[in-house]
């Protein structure tokens, strides 16, 4: 006999579990299905983000930053520590503990909000006589559910290079990159995106010689040019080697090495021999287990589930959110879509503004931005004014001992509306929230400039950048 629900969510990543909780808050009877589990079969909700993405990578970044500080910067503060040793097992173990805390937190939230959780693979199993959807759950215990509404939130998986599958021992995806058993002497990374830069930063700090190869001719082409140049300069100073404009040849693996032949930007043939290779060339939507064809769920030519602006699919009462649909593959974008869909199901008007979704790279320095870059706006022939402020002139940054980078505000030349904010420097991931809020309310650079910011704080750099739009920065 089938269990009946108002809403069944397939996938418990950021989009799925948040959608399930919000739908339950709105009075719906909700179930959420997720297949992530540990070796013992215990459920691990949270998707890629919690298990092998955002959360564990930040845990490793924090630990590796402490190691870097102890090795190279404590002495500046008068702290003498002697020989610093790395216990990689403990470092990885801490990361695993952080992940489990998040897994358990999601299970608690399901219980708190009366969301019924099913551990297993969820798939479409046709339609019931009353028009509701039949969903099968394959796991330790087979289940059959029916739902008036279905939200698909099955996420994405790492894209492999053609002919080079991930073995997670030498050729690593983001998953394998988080659990290397020993610090490699030489580490190669293909792809200078978020994952490549963050994982490259982790293992460089822990002692690996890291080379990142990027096919695009420009470093961080999606970011503002000034920000990208500042970040690349900082990474080079740290010892992170980045080559852009490369063309990768046929990669060869042996029992101990990976050889990456490539043509560099000048056309010269090169060869990179490393102990481990991280491949971070993007991600592809994960729809293989949905049994989508059986119900006619429409996918586009790239494998994404086709949806309209409200995340509706071609099937009645079937929705899709997160990495499995169009738009940036970001956890917070998935969360916003999950909330919006739950509210639309309840008859409300969910809101997602793609123009104010922030981007963050958690390297050191951190990189964050929202809105359009200066080069995008110039290509659109938009009349703009810009203002920048360096962290070198910020009192809190000096006290922290981290003065790399700057904050940049771009505003419309006539209306002063903020069109983009770009930050490279300490805690950029936190500072960007103010810019998102201002832009969501169609605020002006003058609004940021007139708001009182606590002193001394890093946030004053954003205020000063806004003042600089009008050429009246006070501290630079």
UniProtKB/TrEMBL annotation:
Name this polypeptide is given: Dihydrolipoyl dehydrogenase
Chief localization: cytoplasm
Cofactor binding: number and manner: Binds 1 FAD per subunit.
Active site positions, chain numbering: 455 (proton acceptor)
Organism: Advenella mimigardefordensis (strain DSM 17166 / LMG 22922 / DPN7)
Chain positions recorded as NAD(+) binding sites: 191-198, 214, 282
Reactions performed catalytically: N(6)-[(R)-dihydrolipoyl]-L-lysyl-[protein] + NAD(+) = N(6)-[(R)-lipoyl]-L-lysyl-[protein] + NADH + H(+)
Domain of life: Bacteria
Further remark: The active site is a redox-active disulfide bond.
Positions with a binding annotation for FAD: 58, 122, 154-156, 323, 329-332
Subcellular location(s) per record: Cytoplasm
